[in-house]
Amino acid sequence: MKTITVNIPDNLDIDNNEFIMTAASKMYEQGKLSLGQAAQLAGLTKRAFTELLEKYDVSVFNFPATDLASDIANA
Q1: How many structural domains compose the chain?
Q2: What b/e sequence results for 37-66 when a residue is b if at least 16 CB atoms lie within 10 Å of its CB, and e otherwise?
Q3: Which domain holds residue 53?
Q4: Which pTM does this prediction carry?
Q5: Of which family is this protein a member (predicted)?
Q6: Which among 3, 20, 60, 69 has most CB atoms closer than 10 A?
Q7: Using one digit for the tens of pLDDT, what is the confidence trace for 26-46?
């Protein structure tokens, strides 16, 4: 496991959990992490992470239409 240290200036009103959730949700939105990976990064269950995605304006249904078409064709 990798460890990243981020220095957050005292004048910013953000806590560690909010920072991690923001990073995890953005990386999920960009397709860099799966739902499970993002939830693990945030230290949450998949269900809890999914429920919090709305707060960060990220849809749980985050995949390209081409992937959906491919999934339907392969079903």
Answers
A1: 1
A2: ebbebbebeeeebbebbeeeebeeeeeeee
A3: 16-74
A4: 0.75
A5: Belongs to the UPF0175 family.
A6: 20
A7: 999 998 999 999 999 999 999
